[in-house]
Amino acid sequence: MTDHVADQHRVVPAATIEQDDHSEGMTYLESLPRRIVTLYIPLFIIVVILLFPFYWMALTSIKPDEQLIDMERFNPFWVIKPTLKHINKLLFETNYPRWLWNTMYVAAAATTLSIIASVLAAYAIVRLRFRGAEVVGATIFMAYLVPPSILFIPLATVIQAYGLFDSPLSLILIYPTLLIPFSTWLLMGYFKTIPFELEECALIDGASRWQILVKIIVPLAVPGLISAFIFSFTLCWNEFIYALTFLQSTQNKTVPVAIVNEFVDGDIYKWGSLMAGALVGSLPLVILYAFFVEHYVSAMTGAVKE
Questions:
Q1: Which of 33, 277, 279, 282 is most solvent-facing, going by the fewest CB within 10 Å?
Q2: Helix (H, G, I), strand (E, B) or coil at 75
Q3: Would you state the pLDDT for residue 265?
Q4: Cβ count within 10 A of residue 180
């Protein structure tokens, strides 16, 4: 009897009380109505908002012309008797495959050059510890904030002087001015998460800085490199101002510029082919993000922490 009374008056540690309160704080997720209100409905709304543009592009690209024009007789959010006429015209009656190749070629080449330069710059700023390294890093990132609408006029003068006007090579040389600053800042944050002791051990064993960079830093920084590559590739793929300024010939244009110039005639918009071009042009990026989204998120998280 005495032991029973003692058990009733036993003092419960504060840590145990806090742990119980913390565990009970998430019990609202166990209730189905609350999960619907706090989790499922917000997720559904977000998914609808994000996927609706792709649904609208796909719907418009397979609509017959009369359903695109007459919104009173036909439901604008559905299609009756879908057709592949617009997609067929896009792929076989225009230079769209050439535009797609131009976009892929420019984006891949410019991204590769930018990643190589960014790796060298980020490693030098983070690891070599020279005077003013932090100032240089901040200055490089500030260069990313300069709007392209200010730079394209002087860059056009340079491109014209070197005879690169109306050539995809002009975009390959210009896009790194946009890509290198942000990629360098991103890789700086990721390189800081790699233990410096690994490099010290390699230096003691006689490795050079170049060997350390190639054999130690780069393999460990693969998620950061993937993140920088995805960002740079996406920016090149969707860039409009420079491509519009420096490319004039129809066969040399990239997808964002070509579909606007070729399928818009004054106030006449060829919505079927226009949406089909936008949809097909976005598929490579969707595939890219689907394969590497986990590496992209982890690298962005590591860079933000720094």
A1: 33
A2: coil
A3: 75
A4: 23
Cβ pair 103, 255 in contact under 8 A: yes
pTM: predicted TM-score of the whole model, two decimal places: 0.77
Cβ proximity of 288 and 108 under 8 Å:
no
What pLDDT sits at residue 237?
92
Residues of the chain with pLDDT under 70: 1-30, 293-306
Q: What residues contact 243, with CB distance under 8 A and at least 6 apart?
A: 171, 253, 254, 256, 257
Provide the angle, in degrees to the nearest 10, between the axes of the packed helices 271-305 and 176-191. 30
Structure tokens at 257: 């510029």
CB atoms within 10 A of CB 271: 18
CA distances, 229 to each of 77, 181, 183, 234, 304 (Å):
36, 13, 8, 8, 17
Side chain identity, residue 174 = I
Q: pLDDT digit string (tens) for 258-269?
A: 888 888 877 778
